[in-house]
Amino acid sequence: xxxxxxxxxxxxxxxxxxxxxxxxxxxxxxxxxxxxxxxxxxxxxxxxxxxxxxxxxxxxxxxxxxxxxxxxxxxxxxxxxxxxxxxxxxxxxxxxxxxxxxxxxxxxxxxxxxxxxxxxxxxxxxxxx
Length: 129
What we know:
VOC family protein; 2 helices; VOC_core; alpha/beta
């Protein structure tokens, strides 16, 4: 089994640019004009273009809103180069909203992409002394 977490974005090219520039993902396959699978090592994500204001499912009263929002499911990106990756996220248009960790805990940053989706950036676990 493998898993691909798919992220809705209002602009596919902008989504590809963010996840490439911020987190090092590369486009691998585009099975549909509005859907791309990107990889970084063994990690895979899908990006699917869905317009703001559209309904996520038939009969739903919800509409897609790409302002900053909370969701009960989010991605955690574990990286070796924490500070460098965090800076790349901000340069690429994401937000670093809060940092935590240190000491015996890995550095963690609570972030969001340019489309309002929250995610965590997690650095390496400090080595025991």
